[in-house]
Amino acid sequence: MDLLIKKAGILIEALPYIQRLAGKTVVIKYGGNAMINEELKSSVMEDITLLKFIGLNPIVVHGGGPDISSALTTYGIESRFVNGLRVTDADTVRIAQMVLVGKTNKEIVAGINGKGGRAVGISGIDGALLECEKYYTEVDGEKADIGYVGDIVHVNQDLLHLLTSDKYIPVVAPIGTDKNGQSYNINADTVASELACALKAEKLMLLTDIDGVKDADGNIIFEMSVQETRRLINEGVINGGMIPKVLGCVKAIGGGVQRVHIIDGRVPHSILLEIFTDTGIGTMITK
């Protein structure tokens, strides 16, 4: 009986969050170990399906770095990164598109549908969802060309509204095109941030392989402002592949997203724990 009462208490704790978030959009960037471990995969699919059934509008953006790297190795192509972004020549962008759209995306769609959801797999190419131009990074103060890496200039939000209003769960592969039809590989964190901004999402959630953002002493920062986030980047506390991730978070807040959460995808049901419990997990970024 005590166990049943405890379960009821958990449901009651979630009630105000369910009431407040009903009908709201939550963009989830799915990546890291949660895409590899079968138990974690299953829990993520369950979380996403549950969100839709209780009245939220989840939109999933996925990565696929390990799948891309594996495919490139098969084709004898070395993976290279600059500032956390994959250097993408013509062969690499073709392979990335093949892997992300044809393999990774469809596996996620099948996983959600297997839990009773109604997922639809699309890429940024479909319906001109993500219009891009070439992105240049900076190395030693100089502009650097890293190939067919895209910078999003327009989001066709009507397509996503159409899908979510008809009870579907969009699953987006991070490939876009420019006006001439050239495909570009886009950082999945950037895609998630841009979609969240365009849709004025209530929440943007990034599943990662870390406990959360940490300070210089290695302690988890449970909540931080945009100003503090920029300071940690400038001080080098946030570095490497975390830079595009947190810059996307900062941009999302500036674009009207209410809350951004960097959570540990290695924890089963981390999405539900972050959204529907008083304590939450990971790091929340606010204005």
UniProtKB/TrEMBL annotation:
<keyword id="KW-0963">Cytoplasm</keyword>
<dbReference type="GO" id="GO:0005524">
    <property type="term" value="F:ATP binding"/>
</dbReference>
<feature type="domain" description="Aspartate/glutamate/uridylate kinase">
    <location>
        <begin position="24"/>
        <end position="264"/>
    </location>
</feature>
<feature type="binding site">
    <location>
        <begin position="64"/>
        <end position="65"/>
    </location>
    <ligand>
        <name>substrate</name>
    </ligand>
</feature>
<keyword id="KW-0067">ATP-binding</keyword>
<protein>
    <recommendedName>
        <fullName>Acetylglutamate kinase</fullName>
        <ecNumber>2.7.2.8</ecNumber>
    </recommendedName>
</protein>
<dbReference type="InterPro" id="IPR037528">
    <property type="entry name" value="ArgB"/>
</dbReference>
<dbReference type="GO" id="GO:0042450">
    <property type="term" value="P:L-arginine biosynthetic process via ornithine"/>
</dbReference>
<dbReference type="GO" id="GO:0003991">
    <property type="term" value="F:acetylglutamate kinase activity"/>
</dbReference>
<dbReference type="InterPro" id="IPR004662">
    <property type="entry name" value="AcgluKinase_fam"/>
</dbReference>
<feature type="binding site">
    <location>
        <position position="86"/>
    </location>
    <ligand>
        <name>substrate</name>
    </ligand>
</feature>
<dbReference type="GO" id="GO:0005737">
    <property type="term" value="C:cytoplasm"/>
</dbReference>
<keyword id="KW-0808">Transferase</keyword>
<comment type="function">
    <text>Catalyzes the ATP-dependent phosphorylation of N-acetyl-L-glutamate.</text>
</comment>
<dbReference type="InterPro" id="IPR041727">
    <property type="entry name" value="NAGK-C"/>
</dbReference>
<dbReference type="Pfam" id="PF00696">
    <property type="entry name" value="AA_kinase"/>
</dbReference>
<feature type="binding site">
    <location>
        <position position="185"/>
    </location>
    <ligand>
        <name>substrate</name>
    </ligand>
</feature>
<dbReference type="InterPro" id="IPR036393">
    <property type="entry name" value="AceGlu_kinase-like_sf"/>
</dbReference>
<dbReference type="InterPro" id="IPR001057">
    <property type="entry name" value="Glu/AcGlu_kinase"/>
</dbReference>
<keyword id="KW-0055">Arginine biosynthesis</keyword>
<keyword id="KW-0028">Amino-acid biosynthesis</keyword>
<dbReference type="InterPro" id="IPR001048">
    <property type="entry name" value="Asp/Glu/Uridylate_kinase"/>
</dbReference>
<feature type="site" description="Transition state stabilizer">
    <location>
        <position position="245"/>
    </location>
</feature>
<comment type="similarity">
    <text>Belongs to the acetylglutamate kinase family. ArgB subfamily.</text>
</comment>
<keyword id="KW-0547">Nucleotide-binding</keyword>
<keyword id="KW-0418">Kinase</keyword>
<feature type="site" description="Transition state stabilizer">
    <location>
        <position position="29"/>
    </location>
</feature>
<comment type="pathway">
    <text>Amino-acid biosynthesis; L-arginine biosynthesis; N(2)-acetyl-L-ornithine from L-glutamate: step 2/4.</text>
</comment>
